[in-house]
Structures are given as structure tokens and as C-alpha cells.
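User: Show me an example of a complex going from sequences to C-alpha cells.

Assistant: Sure. Here are the input components:
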Amino acid sequence: MDPVNMKEVQEALDSFKDKEVYLHMETTNGAYASHFNDKFFSAGAYIRNAKLSYERAKITGPGPYRVGLKIPFGWVYAEGITHYEIDSKSRLLLAGHDYDGKLAVALQLSETAFE
Amino acid sequence: MEKEQHVLVVFPHPDDEAFGVSGTIASHINMGTPVTYACLTLGEMGRNMGNPPFATRETLPNIRKHELKEAARVLGITDLRMLGYRDKTVEFEDPDKLIGQITDMIEELNPSLIISFYPGYSVHPDHEATGEAVVAAVAKLPAGQRPKLHLVAFANNTIDELGEADIVHDISAVADQKLAAIKAHQSQTQYMIDAMAEGLKNKDPQVMTRLTFEQFYTYKL
């Protein structure tokens, strides 16, 4: 993955517009956060291969970045995005890595289901 | 360490075996005891991607699969089974499915010892679900036919509630193999490996303990 290039990410987001796509999205602080710090409130969310389409998408912010997708009856968004990759299967992988290189958030789009 | 007939190790993530029990596994194998390792997931939800990143959410499973095979190789495990569950979802599956798979392995292999996590004291939801299924599978067997259960517990309340572990293996003779198994899981352990190798050289007490002793609780049914 490379540090976000806004122009390339925006172009990739636009390329999926009005198409049926599969979404992978997650946020995580790791399964051991409360084990190492009992004052830490552990929370996360995960969805894999939700099928949706969107009419508008935007990446914004000074970095780390925010990405929002406007879907027919609502929204999808993620914040904390630092890296991107358009992989060999033409999937758009967006991820936010913390200062230790650990994944904290991911938002990925693909025209075929993720394995 | 007692000589076993067959050892079955059941953990949910590649690298679960490395930290807590790889010295014990290597010791059994060095005694000529066959060891089967059933690993439920490929650790697909691992968070360490590196800085700069060396992996993505989509490439990580394959990287970890190769690391798992390498760890099995350095420990001498020839029967490695990947059960195809997905990281962080084990607790949401039908428990009877996993219990059934473990029951089938027990019937097939007739292990005298099973190593897994201690339910209630193993922190990660996948660890808990795995330990629960192992205990449930063994509990279903007639009392005289149950393999021993040596379980790993490391929750913060372990010592308070379970006391000290009753099984302590000195694995110093295979410390190098243990270090190699930890090292095999490079994507997960690259940060600690250099420190551990250094600690071993300088005889750092914490590192020495980790590479000298492995602890288990005998689970009584």
C-alpha cells in the first residue's frame, strides 16, 4: 500500500459509482486492548461483502483522510484513512494504519466478492 | 515431561502455538510422539501491517498461512490441519459444528493429551470459543476414555481465580526451536524477535522465563 494520493483515490471511487459493488469495512482497536489496559473501552465494527451501490463518493481531509459514500437510503463513511492500493483485481483497498503500523480502519470496494 | 501417545493441539490463530506451547510441542516431537495441530483460522484480522505496510487486509491471510506452515516445519509438526474458520467469527458459529470436528479428530487420532485454551481465562473471543468447544468435545466422551486437557490461561484474573499453573515444562533444551517458531510468524512478531534474541543472549530474566518455561492448567471434568 502507498500513502493516500487523493486524486487517484477519488478517481477510483468515481469508477465504482452507480455500480453494484461489494464493501468490506472494519474498525478495530485489537482484541487485546482491554487486556493490556483495563480502562480501555474496546469497540469495533466489521462488515464483509455487503452489496451496495452509491451515487456519490468523496475523499477529503488533510490526512489522515475521511471517505464517504452516499448510498440510496443513507451513508457509509470511514475516518483515519492513511493508505491506499488498487490491487491486481482492480479492488480499491483503503486502510488507516496507526503510528505503529497497525490497521485501525479499512474501507474496501470490489466488483466481485472478497474471499 | 510425560511420554504421550499422541498430542492434539487446537488453537484458533497461527502464532497461538508459538508463544505459549511451541517448546512443549517440540519436546513431544523430539520424544517421538506424533503431534497434530488444528488451527481454526488464518488470523485474517491481524492488525500489524507494518510501516511502511508490507500487507493488506486481503494479502494477510496467505502470508500467515505460509508462516503457519513454516512454524509447523521448524517444530517438526507433520500433521497440520487448517480448519477454514475466519478470524474473530468463531464464537458466532454453531458451536456443535466445531465440537463435532474436534470429536471426529479425537476418534481418528486417539490423543492421550489435548492442548488448547482455558475457557474463561484466555482473553480473545476466538480463544474462548475454541477452549469451550474442546472442553465440550472431551466432556462428551465416557469418563474412562478422556484424553488429558492441558490448557493455557493468561487472563489478568487467572492467578487470583485458578491459582498457579499445575503443569510447568522446562523447555530450555528446545528454546532455539521455540524462538524459530516465533520467528516464523514474522508478520506478527518482527518487532519482538530482535529484542527476544538479544534478551536470550544477555540472559534477560523475562525473556529467559518465556524461553525456559511453559505453563498449563490441567482441566478437570
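The lines above are the inputs; the final block is the predicted structure for all two components together. Chain A is about 10% helix and 50% strand.
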